[in-house]
Amino acid sequence: MTRGALPNRFLLPAILTLMLSYGRSARAQVSAIYSDYGGFWTTSSSSVNSTKPDNSHNLLAFTWNGTTFSTGVSDATLTSHSVAFTPLMLRAFPITTVPNTAGGAYYVMLGQLYDGVNNGVSSPAPFPANPTGAQLATFLTDGPRGLNLGTGLANIPAGTSLRFDLSSNGISLSSINDGIPDIFVTEEASPTSSNPDVFSFVDASGHTVGTAVSVVTSSLTPIGNWLADFYDLTGTQTSSSFINQTRPLAYYAADLSTFGINATNYMNAVALIYQPNGTSDPAFIAFNEPSISIATQVYITAQPTTYTNNVTLSSVPTIQLKDGLGRIVSQSGIPVTVSIATGTATLSGTLTVNTDASGIATFSDLSLAGSGNVSLKFSSTSLDPGVTGNLNPVSLPLNWLSFTGENVWNGILLRWTTSGERNTKDFIVQRSNVLAAWQDIGTIPATGSLNTNTYQFTDNSPAPGANDYRIRQRDMDGNSTFSLTVAVGFSTLSPAAVTIYPNPVSGGTVYIELPHAALVTLYNADGIPVLRKQMAEGTQRLAVGYLARGFYSLVIDNAAYKVEIL
Q: Which of 136, 249, 291, 355 could form a Cys-Cys staple with 182, CB 3.0–4.6 A?
């Protein structure tokens, strides 16, 4: 036996394993595809089309094990060209990010006319130089249902692991071993490695459910060719051997049964993991929607119905990822982007939000600048977008410019300014504190001017301590709006009018001599109130023995005193 040779007892099983793997790959390979290049285009292993696509085009159908399956992109086009097919709902996996380290042989691959330059590359490139992982991922999810065959990535670095969470629908039992492909893999360049791409379903503990499927992309049989440019991640390409180059097209599809998924274990799967081999060159990786319940749609769970010009939307739009059957998909890190769907307005705020661990994206700071009805569109990668109903503009009767309050010798002085008053009747000053709910304390007539207007009001009888104020603006037609709330402290006490003893406090009790009834609040060193009590005039006892040792601030009405508890 020579060094490195297999012992005879291992040789036959190894040969049989190789034969079985090859046989499985051969049966699972795709023998023909149909796309919308030039309106309609097809190629097959038995009749390679001499026309080579050189731009974006979308997968309409493919032939696998002798049956042609449509993808759902345009069944009408197939029918108009007399293609008999079995309907399928194929969709690209919602890949949100990939490695973005430039260098080596990692390229963005595009149909050679995608950049508008024949037999050359554009400057700048048709994508940002040194793109983010999210920007690169869009080349694996663009086009209807994410099935664009004219864009992709070459040589995604080995070690990449992409996870796709399933909803509670999980895997469809009826889809197992039904003769319909559930996973579709594209290969559109010239992989050299014998290392496989690996696909596996995992359970909640991360263990493989069934068996992992290894796809050696370099062994797939080409069924056609295309013309591609290969851009460096810097957005450049100087080598002619990577410009306007003919590259083979090869594809692979598999049923769930290939993964060892069966009636016993299918309910254990919670996610699918994809690990590229380092030289594979996908345009996209896709799945059959009815079979595997991965996110397929952006669903709007909450939306506003009105908006005020340049004011943050009062009702926060909330987005939930769902599968094709409407079940929640708890996939984090999926970027959702909002844009104007209909109407004319300027949208401001955080326009792209990643989903949280529950698959929810919350847009909390959006505002619209406009005057007509608009609707908003929320979209992400290859997912079906969500579009709101109409948001109708609401005109404010005035603009609030400022509202302040300050202590003066005889009370609290409030000042506010407005502009653009339309149909404005008056301003009702309201006050609230810990002892009383909101109450009207005064009314000021409105000037009704569109220019800047300044108003003031003095509260001659504020309560000792903190007082909250707001202005209720009333229209001639009875409608009203409120200003922001301001808090102003008020005290009639002088430091000499209050006696606190002992200080430092020992024995857990402190005595306070008050000239009149007052609200007493004790704050710890972090500014957090730990005790609040309304006390009568005279000498009062305050128990503080349960509090931690240290310095505290004793606030009586609006006057503060330093107290140490031993």
A: 291
